[in-house]
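Forwarding the complex inputs:
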Amino acid sequence: MTEIAKYGEFGLIKHLTKDLKTVQPSTKKGIGDDCAVMDFGSKKVLMTTDMLLEGIHFNLEYVPLKHLGYKAAVVNFSDIYAMNGTPTQITVSLGISKRFSVEDIEALYSGIRLACERYNVDLVGGDTCASMTGLTISITCLGTAAAKDIVYRNGAKLNDLICVSGNLGTAYMGLQLLERERLAMSQSTPNTPSTPNTPIAAFEGREYLLERQLKPEARRDILESLRKVGVKPTAMMDVSDGLSSELMHICSQSGVGCCVYEDKLPIDFQAAALAEEMNLNIVTCALNGGEDYELLFTCSLDDYEKLIPVEDLYIIGHITKPEYGCNLIGRNGEEITLKAQGWNAFD
Amino acid sequence: MTEIAKYGEFGLIKHLTKDLKTVQPSTKKGIGDDCAVMDFGSKKVLMTTDMLLEGIHFNLEYVPLKHLGYKAAVVNFSDIYAMNGTPTQITVSLGISKRFSVEDIEALYSGIRLACERYNVDLVGGDTCASMTGLTISITCLGTAAAKDIVYRNGAKLNDLICVSGNLGTAYMGLQLLERERLAMSQSTPNTPSTPNTPIAAFEGREYLLERQLKPEARRDILESLRKVGVKPTAMMDVSDGLSSELMHICSQSGVGCCVYEDKLPIDFQAAALAEEMNLNIVTCALNGGEDYELLFTCSLDDYEKLIPVEDLYIIGHITKPEYGCNLIGRNGEEITLKAQGWNAFD
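Prediction (whole assembly, two chains):
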């Protein structure tokens, strides 16, 4: 018998789906991108799904249920935007153990509904069932796009610019902050009166880190900006597993290599400060942290001038020949080969 | 705080979604039927989702993983057929704990893929992640239908015939058989040599009951037959929670009552024999057993003649005025009010 850890998440999916064929004329793109693409008539239909499991993807000791619902919906919207589409409908399946009350599930749903309202998405169905253990959330999202607008992962060309929105590693630092406080709380004996260093005080001035972890947003604003300046990406993904992992997906699917520069990576000041305090390398966090839900895309070098006025967007490198591989150029000019650490909870 | 058991599954969904509005022009039908209905162009798109949790929906002590995968896919197809549509694509999300091997997940996937092949459905995406506890399967299915062909739950009219395919309560009796053997196995001490009454012997001649529980099929053949004879149902559902529960859904959504006859309910001989052996009332099993995945529909009384040549289809009653409620007429003419026992694992 083979342990699943041997394959890891990506390996297992690849292994399970390696000779999968599609037969429906409406299926334009199956497994292997942020979304599947279907053609049911005038517009293309995008489909994506995400599952969140208690103890793996979230810890209810510090994640409020409303935030969890919001995030569970938004990460799906982010996948639709990452194809340059517009999310339109979701279905929500919940597995709920007895320790949750109706009010708990209402809070979860209120977060999902808030996300739907903000992003103009309809909640059109789902399944709610009892669970023996903990909370399970599975959301599937549909979206639409004109065929000419869809951006896949496999379109990056030699010399294309590599761009990323927002900043990287911040959601990961938010998680470190939450984890540190959780440990501090669990180590203080129950009978000790609360000290001045309560969790709330520890979070002061660091609300942005928490927000990035607990309540991420999908970057539809970046797509709107790109449309305004007339830039269509050649390849695109959202950064859910970490920049390294996503860059390697784009490069392997496009048959190219890449070169990104350490000093170009957008890093938030608070995130960097906390990383120093916690003795972490913020660049490693930016490369492998995950859950930022920023947009990573490539576009033609000819679009360089058009990109300059776009706010909150950073050019971090360029596409190379495949022989070059995927490399980071450090601050002192050293070349470091990127590794897809990503997320392997099977280990 | 309110215990979830107070609401039950249907109550909880209703409570959570009671004032939910849709905003997308492409959303034609949201929550409340077997599928959501979207309009993306020439054809309508149907969407449904189901979640299966270990210990709640299946017991791996007697459910082979390949069968489980097959069933998980087929129950979604059944929801699409229950709208008179054709399933076209699925996404599969899995939560997998460490006790599963790659071979286990291959077996599960092989069942899903077999179902996809048999029903011409494309597997177009999904999510695979580690789980702290047990196996979680969440499948979402898309399908298509011409607008004029879609059958909702709310179209039943006074005097319409009520029809059901196949037989009822058989999947439930299959489950009873499996449970009985599981208990017998667990009670025999590990050191006792196997007796002549091995599980395999106990299942002999009862393979059909097991098949109905472990490897159900979706009744697309019934829809094909109805198309051939030119009958379009006025309301339709698949029987997943039990006949009583489904009849009450159709009646409440259509604003009608119904009358079904005990002696018209299609009961399998093996199922009836096992029920007698186990001291169970087979009619109660047929009404409340669930998991039969047969089609329940209403159609105009004018279609009566056309229905006669359709194989494996049974007229079990008719639609009444709403004041009459939902009633079963017993073998001695007694009137019994139907109750939706359904499935309430929150209790």
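The longest helix of chain B spans residues 102-119.
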